[in-house]
Amino acid sequence: MSRPGSIGTQPGPERELLTTDLPGAPQQALAELMAGNRRFVTDTLRHPNQNAGRRAAVAAEQHPFAVIVGCSDSRLAAEIIFDRGLGDLFVVRTAGHTIGPEVLGSVEYAVSVLRTPLVVVLGHDSCGAVQAARAALATGTSPGGHLRAVVDAVVPSLRRAQAAGVDELDQIVDIHIAQTVTAMLDSSTTLAAEVAAGRCAVVGMSYRLAAGEVRAVAAEPADLAAIAAPAA
């Protein structure tokens, strides 16, 4: 069971909310995510905050401790791989974790209104969106329909990888995750201000589909990456 007062406990009148108002909240939120992922990897799941009492407790309001901007891949369900429950995570998903005004607006809502102290960009190995963008660059063609918007959003990361001499798919995925972190901070003055004030952090993570574990590939501030290092 989670220790009294931790964010893993069932909610009660004395439950401490992990928000931007709490010193060290970004670090604590990231540590909580990593602990949940270790439980998932080792098959020691707790399934916190997934009962009727929790459902009733969060019906009137929510205080998620992390925003997950993740790929839409069906194997990347954030609440499962981080072993969390109702009201814990504010999840925004698009193919290839591409970002646009609606995604950025959702993140800003979580950070500024819900006072969520951590934003995670969650990608994964063998990403289909990255593969599609690489194929488009190689052939000089783009897919039709709205799928083209996804490919076009990933192409800058491919060009960055090419400039760095990187050709291995999963290394390109890491570059794309890091590029998404940078793009979010460059595009959202609200998010950048919260990070600069120390009230929020942004971490880019890559998920291994077979192993089930996440690892940090980018972080702002940079020292948070150590918290998201794989367990020895």
TrEMBL record:
Query: What InterPro entries is this protein classified in?
Result: Carbonic_anhydrase (IPR001765), Carbonic_anhydrase_CS (IPR015892), Carbonic_anhydrase_sf (IPR036874)
User: Can you cite a GO biological process for this protein?
Assistant: carbon utilization
Q: Give a Pfam family name.
A: Pro_CA
Give me the ranges of the annotated region Disordered: 1-20
Keyword Zinc found: yes
The entry's free-text remark on the cofactor is: Binds 1 zinc ion per subunit.
Give the EC number.
4.2.1.1
Q: Which SUPFAM superfamilies match?
A: beta-carbonic anhydrase, cab (SSF53056)
**CDD domains from the entry?**
beta_CA_cladeC
Gene3D superfamilies recorded: Carbonic anhydrase
Q: What does this protein do?
A: Catalyzes the reversible hydration of carbon dioxide to form bicarbonate.
Q: What is this protein called?
A: Carbonic anhydrase
Taxonomic lineage is: Bacteria, Bacillati, Actinomycetota, Actinomycetes, Micromonosporales
